[in-house]
């Protein structure tokens, strides 16, 4: 059997820990690839939006409700041709919520096609839970939202 070398150490009831330097690098990497709904909304609200929002859910879900100004680009339709039609700059990608990895897959595909991306963690579900506005045929009322309202189809 080969021994595994690791830089993690055991730290009691919370399990393994890593050095502060490794922890910093890990968290910096996550922040470089993720945004949360509040950060996205405040940038939009305050006129600091320097990104395009991309909804990778099914087109029908997008028509029903989406983030203000979001462009619909379903996951299966991410191609070099479609990506070339997107505005230049950072793309913030979202799907329906944390139990869906469509935004992760979408951001990865867009990055593979040469685009700068961030995944909006929490997706539409947490956007609505935080009370931010939506657009579409049936804008979502955060106080009464049901899973069906969130467009649970990727």
Tell me about this structure.
By secondary structure, the chain is an alpha/beta fold. Helices cover 34% and strands 14% of the residues. It contains six helices and seven strands. The chain has helices at residues 20-33, 37-45, 59-64, 80-84, 102-112, 123-129; strands at residues 9-10, 16-17, 34-35, 51-55, 71-72, 90-94, 117-120. A five-stranded parallel beta sheet has the order 3-7-6-4-5. A two-stranded antiparallel sheet has the order 1-2. Strand 4, helix 3 (59-64) and strand 5 (71-72) form a beta-alpha-beta unit. The longest helix has 14 residues, at 20-33.
Show the helix and strand layout.
Blueprint: E1 9-10, E2 16-17, H1 20-33, E3 34-35, H2 37-45, E4 51-55, H3 59-64, E5 71-72, H4 80-84, E6 90-94, H5 102-112, E7 117-120, H6 123-129
Parallel strand pairs: 3-7, 4-5, 4-6, 6-7
Antiparallel strand pairs: 1-2
- What Rg, in angstroms, do the CA atoms define? 18 Å
Could you give the order of the helices and strands? EEHEHEHEHEHEH
State the share of residues found in helices, binned by percent: 25-40%
Structural class: alpha/beta
Global outline:
globular
Number of strands: 7
Distance between the termini: 43 Å
Task: Please summarize what this structure is.
Helices cover 34% and strands 14% of the residues. The chain is α/β, with parallel strands linked by helices and 154 residues long. A hairpin with a 5-residue loop joins strand 1 (9-10) and strand 2 (16-17).
Tags for this model:
single chain; 154 residues; alpha/beta; five-stranded parallel β-sheet; two-stranded antiparallel ribbon; 34% helix
